[in-house]
Amino acid sequence: MQKRFVSMTTREIIIDTADQLIRGNGFNAFSFKDISNKIGIKTASIHYHFPTKSDLGVATVKEHIARLERIKAELSGESPLVKLNRFLSIYAQIKSDNKVCLVGSLATDLNTVDDAVKNELKDFAERVLNWVADVLADGKEQKVFEFQVPPRTKALMVITNILAIVQLSRLTDDQDFDIVKETILQELSPKK
After folding, report:
1. Which residue numbers delimit the HTH tetR-type domain (predicted)?
2. Model pTM greater than 0.85?
């Protein structure tokens, strides 16, 4: 058993492994057998926890929602700049791990996953969008950020840029991620 699994339940290990496979190869590119081979349990054990692949997909997205909510709670008293930097650091870690984000990965499979996974993914994407929009609105109100468009529009621009550069920088220069991240922050900085 891998070190990161030491204090995890079998269910959590299955979700974590599915998450790694989804963000590494895509939802349609793995099977329960792949998970079984990676963690050393029978596929029947996986089916015990997740009768269908859709059930596992929903659980994986729900885990990301829970992580987002924990991050938001941890940062509740922090400044908008700290919150935005934390958001960007999530994508920096994804880039460092040579993965893509869950939304980016599952969005490419959207036409082939069932409604339960789609609905959960839409909920997650909306939560991320709302959080970033709220952070930007608070930052604008506190004069930490400056931008002309509505906060939701600016949040869409920030999210799509950082999501896309994670994927694109896998093909281009590694520094491209940092350049885009720094540009996002510079463009939000109040002009003197």
Report:
1. 8-68
2. yes
